[in-house]
Design brief:
The complex is a heterotrimer. Chain A is an alpha+beta fold. Chain A has 5 helices and 12 strands. Chain C is built from 4 helices and 12 strands. In chain C, helix 3 crosses helix 4. The chains are: A alpha+beta, B alpha+beta, C alpha+beta.
Chain lengths: ~220, ~250, ~200
């Protein structure tokens, strides 16, 4: 039930992750962080099997740090994604594969380009302009298909992310305690807040002021 | 003294020397000269191919120039069979890096990794060091063109111009005199030929006696290595001879 | 979800023409019924030899990378190009090496022999059994549909332009009848000294 959303804007990538940890019908935590910083320009959002996720995220973080230390240069977001994919693909053929789905958001400082990679637990990796994992994907890919455009400003991107979250708030069966937002751009990785949404577009079950007045 | 410390594995002698490594270096100092020059827009490697007998079949492929990856090529001085094993390893390292990280291995990382294996052979029991020095010419998008040299101890260093093998002291002196920072690749090729012509025993250079390799950007702007064909070497040699004639007059 | 070959979807086809070969695939990558990407290319080029890999996307990626490695090392070692036949045997032995825990892929090889220019195509099952053909080969979740349409559209000795038309129509008709394939296509026409790559626009449903 964890929510992972990623979307590219003209100069950055926005990663949106839910704050709740839930088991069955219970919410166990309301301020969980599902994003790990891998290096100056790469962040990874993760969800999946509870024990696996933290272990895998830590493993990738450590290996990316080790590469930077050994070779004196940081890995590019593209090579981080490729490395992570290869680790998941390798794990898939072991006795107990990692069950982790990922979104890797990065910014290529040399080419000044953002990138977003969608990676599933099987080790399939695709570079996408916008992406989501889990149940969230069912609810919001249509929204993103409709409203995402090439070359969005950061402001427009955050607004679109807020639209998605608002849609999820009405549709998801369990409160996911809101979302954390991380932005990866030319100045590195920053957290941010979503702008408030007055009326979420396409939300049919919210009656408008006019309908209420006439009733 | 040395008899007690050099016959078996690589252990320190009381003077703090590793005889096996020194013997390996000695083996290389008899090998054909190899040199490398870093230019503004590329790198040239040149090597002397020792023709030991007229009867020896002239191989079509290069003996001393080996491509290691898309952007790295190396010149060999020393025992060819040792070199061939190391080249095989280096190619595997380069391809494994590409497979894992979806990016070509940066030149310095490849050199570092290969030198780590070479170092291992100077320390672990029952092994002898590789009798090979390499000169590497490489390019990567972060550091651009790079020239490195390594030796059997596993030490490596970056250079603007360097040489190994027989007569390398003479070659090094010449390179020191003639090297200029703003050298273009074409001039670097000519300088390489000039140095080789002075350090080699034979009076005239021919394409059967030398090998050339360059790393530079092609017509499409993409950086590529090029192990030169004999015909291309002849063209460069012709230019070299003309320049020499002109200087005599 | 029970059949790994049908999680991500995708289909490919190769055909022989007159002194040319064609290879084509769709561009979809999905998770069951949900489309994820419309630019997931399944055809990989190895210095003139073309390999299509359909099936489980992770294995498609793992194998395409593995073949890039093996192909590069081959060409560096042998100092010559790898022929399509050689590539086919490399694919076969690589797949069979995982006989008891296979890669869930359906590969195709297409190319022209570098010296004779003779067309070569073949397909494989997931454990590397080669199937040769001198007309067409098909793989993927739309392979049944592809067999049908190729049987009726294919004719021997087509010129490159006609071969492009035939393979494109075959691919598009087939993937329209398969929910797991489509979302655009890509076609390579391989001639002696020319390769043409074209993208196809198809239905987006």
């Amino acid at each position: 039930m964890d929510i992972l959303i990623g979307l590219q804007t003209a100069n950055e990538v926005i990663l949106v992750t839910s704050r709740a940890i839930s088991r069955g019908v219970s919410v166990l935590k309301h301020d969980d962080n599902k994003v790990v910083k891998l290096n100056s320009y790469t962040a990874m959002a993760y969800s999946g099997e509870p024990g696996d996720v933290s272990n895998f995220a830590e493993y990738i973080q450590a290996n990316v740090a080790l590469y930077g230390l050994r070779h004196g240069i940081e890995m590019t977001p593209n090579s981080v994604a490729a490395f992570t994919r290869s680790e998941l693909a390798r794990s898939l053929r072991t006795r107990k594969p990692y069950q982790v789905n990922l979104l890797i958001g990065g910014f290529h400082p040399r080419e000044a380009k953002p990138m977003l990679a969608w990676v599933d637990y099987l080790g399939s990796k695709v570079d996408l302009p916008y992406a989501a994992h889990g149940y969230a994907a069912y609810y919001i890919t249509a929204t993103l298909d409709r409203y995402w455009k090439k070359g969005l400003t950061l402001e427009q991107g955050l607004k679109l992310a807020a639209q998605c979250v608002s849609e999820l708030q009405t549709r998801m069966p369990i409160d996911f305690k809101g979302c954390d937002v991380h932005i990866v751009g030319k100045s590195g990785i920053q957290s941010a807040d979503l702008p408030p949404i007055v009326v979420a577009p396409g939300v049919a079950n919210k009656p408008s002021e006019a309908t209420l007045a006439s009733a | 003294m040395s008899r007690r410390y050099d016959s078996r594995t690589t252990i320190f002698s009381p003077e703090g020397r590793l005889y096996q490594v020194e013997y390996a270096l000695e083996a290389i100092s008899h090998a054909g000269t190899a040199l490398g020059i870093l230019a503004k827009d590329g790198i040239v490697l040149a090597a002397e191919k020792k023709v030991t007998s007229k009867l020896l079949e002239q191989d079509i492929s290069a003996e001393k120039m080996y491509a290691l990856s898309k952007h790295v090529v190396c010149a060999v001085a020393g025992i060819d069979s040792d070199a061939s094993r190391l080249v095989q390893r280096a190619r595997n390292m380069a391809q494994n890096h590409l497979a894992t990280y979806d990016e070509e291995i940066p030149c310095d990382i490849l050199v570092k990794q290969l030198c780590d294996t070479m170092q291992g052979y100077t320390q672990y029991g029952g092994l002898r060091p590789f009798g090979v020095s390499f000169i590497y010419a490489g390019w990567d998008p972060v550091q651009g063109y790079q020239l490195y040299q390594s030796n059997p101890s596993g030490n490596y260093s970056g250079w603007l111009a360097t040489s190994v093998g027989a007569n390398n002291a003479a070659a090094q002196t010449l390179l020191k005199q003639e090297f200029k920072e703003e050298l273009e690749l074409e001039d670097a090729v000519q300088l390489a030929l000039k140095v080789l012509s002075k350090t080699m025993d034979s009076a005239t250079l021919t394409s059967t006696k030398i090998e050339l390799a360059t790393v530079g950007s092609g017509a499409d702007g993409e950086v590529k290595y090029n192990v030169w064909k004999p015909a291309d070497i002849e063209v460069a040699l012709k230019k070299h001879k003309e320049a020499e004639e002109a200087q005599k007059k | 979800m029970s059949n790994p070959s049908e999680i991500n979807g995708g289909a490919a086809v190769a055909m022989v023409g007159k002194d040319c070969v064609a290879i084509a695939s769709d561009l979809r990558l999905g998770l069951q019924s949900v489309g994820i990407s419309g630019d997931f290319e399944k055809i990989f080029e190895y210095n003139g030899v073309y390999l299509a890999l359909t099936g489980l996307a992770t294995d498609v990626q793992t194998l395409s990378i593995d073949f890039r490695k093996k192909h590069s090392l081959y060409e560096l070692r042998e100092e010559r190009r790898m022929e399509p036949q050689t590539m086919a045997n490399l694919v076969s032995s690589t797949l069979y090496s995982k006989r008891f825990g296979p890669y869930f892929v359906g590969p195709l090889v297409a190319g022209l022999n570098s010296s004779t220019s003779k067309p070569y195509i073949c397909s494989f099952d997931s454990i590397g059994c080669i199937e040769h053909a001198n007309d067409f080969v098909v793989v993927g979740t739309a392979s049944d549909q592809l067999y049908g349409i190729c049987e009726s559209l294919y004719e021997p000795n087509l010129e490159p332009e006609d071969l492009f038309e035939t393979i494109s129509q075959a691919l598009m008709s087939a993937v329209d009848r398969d929910a797991l394939s489509g979302w655009g296509g890509v076609v390579y026409i391989i001639e002696k000294d020319k390769v043409t790559k074209r993208y196809l626009k198809t239905r987006q449903d």
